[in-house]
């Protein structure tokens, strides 16, 4: 497991660089291939022309029948060659197109576990990967491991447990945001009333980021600790977050418009002129209820079926 975590971290630390490198190569490859194609076309046309001149010279000494026969072959050869070129061009375009498509979708295979401190990310991470209960401590660095989803396709994602502490998470989110296929945002439903403002600020900072807005990773809000009797329901958490994000959007846009100069890297959350709702985000949003601890803690299973189903649909 340690090895896996270590290796996955190494893989991912270079991913944005790798992604841009591949894209660069793909771009240059396309130009290179088109260059070859044009060069080949020129060579063939020249050869064709040479042949013609040569044959034309011969024409004077040969019979008219032979002459028309050679011309006929030349015509068909040209059609044949043009056919080959069109086919080649199609192959090149297909390779470049699918290369780009494959590159970008393959690069985004990370599922980020985000949320405030103590919301239960590390316990959820362990439950999803190993199924067992562990005693956790405050995370100070990210952990990652390959998670095989419980779908028929059996897709695998790299699950990344990001520490909740603000001074640690900002840099880590920055590192992985471009490769996120989904964000599982873990909320401690038992203290949600106290946390609502911080949760909204964290969500706001992620979903107004221009790279996140462009990639639109799926958002699963995991309302955790449902085993605690005071826990708020997923529905209530959704309503209160929508209200809080609406207020936050008003204050933030007012603050932004009061600033001088352009503000980079930030997009508008939701739809202008309408109260904020999660359905306005450009990605799939789901609220699920779960308990990473489960009713029997060490001895029992977690209650994370809804989360597993959600991950299977990614
Ligand atoms: N009752 C209950 N406790 C839970 C649940 N999930 C996690 N906990 C407990 O909450 C505490 C914090 O859990 P962690 O998984 O360490 O929290 P975290 O989100 O990783 O916290 P940071 O690493 O500081 O960001 C631990 O004592 C867990 O046992 C749950 O579903 N129910
Ligand atoms: Mg943790």
From TrEMBL:
Instruction: Please report a single Pfam family linked to this protein.
Output: SRPRB
Matching entries from Gene3D superfamilies are given as: P-loop containing nucleotide triphosphate hydrolases
Entry's transmembrane regions: 30-47, 78-98
Q: What coarse category fits the chief subcellular location reported for this protein?
A: endoplasmic reticulum
UniProt keyword list: Endoplasmic reticulum, GTP-binding, Membrane, Nucleotide-binding, Receptor, Transmembrane, Transmembrane helix
Q: How does it sit in the membrane?
A: Single-pass membrane protein
UniProt subcellular location = Endoplasmic reticulum membrane
Q: Record keywords: Membrane included? A: yes
Question: Would you tell me the Gene Ontology cellular component terms?
Answer: endoplasmic reticulum membrane
Molecular function (GO) terms for this protein are: GTP binding
Leader sequence range is none
Family, according to the entry, reads as follows: Belongs to the SRP receptor beta subunit family.
What's this protein's name? Answer: Signal recognition particle receptor subunit beta
Q: Which organism is it from?
A: Anabarilius grahami (Kanglang fish)
């Amino acid at each position: 497991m340690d090895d896996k975590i270590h290796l996955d971290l190494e893989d991912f630390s270079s991913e944005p660089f790798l992604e841009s490198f591949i894209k660069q190569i793909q771009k240059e490859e396309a130009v290179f291939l088109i260059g070859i194609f044009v060069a080949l076309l020129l060579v063939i046309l020249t050869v064709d022309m040479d042949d013609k001149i040569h044959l034309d010279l011969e024409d004077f000494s040969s019979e008219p029948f032979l002459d028309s026969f050679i011309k006929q072959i030349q015509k068909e050869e040209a059609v044949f060659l043009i056919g080959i070129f069109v086919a080649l061009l199609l192959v090149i375009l297909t390779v470049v197109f699918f290369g780009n498509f494959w590159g970008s979708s393959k690069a985004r295979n990370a599922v980020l576990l985000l949320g405030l401190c103590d919301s239960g990310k590390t316990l959820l991470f362990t439950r999803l990967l190993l199924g067992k209960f562990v005693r956790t401590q405050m995370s100070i660095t990210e952990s990652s491991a390959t998670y095989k989803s419980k779908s028929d396709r059996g897709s695998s994602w790299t699950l990344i447990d990001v520490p909740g502490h603000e001074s640690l998470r900002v840099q880590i989110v920055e590192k992985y945001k471009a490769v996120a296929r989904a964000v599982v945002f873990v909320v401690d439903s038992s203290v949600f009333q106290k946390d609502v403002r911080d949760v909204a600020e964290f969500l706001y900072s992620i979903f107004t980021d221009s790279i996140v807005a462009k990639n639109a990773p799926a958002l699963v809000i995991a309302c955790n600790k449902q085993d605690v009797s005071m826990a708020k329901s997923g529905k209530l958490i959704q309503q209160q977050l929508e209200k809080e994000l609406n207020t936050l959007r008003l204050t933030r846009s007012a603050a932004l418009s009061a600033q001088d100069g352009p503000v980079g890297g930030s997009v508008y959350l939701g739809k202008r002129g309408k109260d904020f709702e999660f359905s306005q985000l450009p990605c799939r949003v789901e609220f699920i209820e779960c308990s990473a601890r489960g009713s029997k803690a060490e001895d029992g299973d977690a209650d994370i079926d809804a989360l597993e189903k959600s991950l299977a649909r990614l």
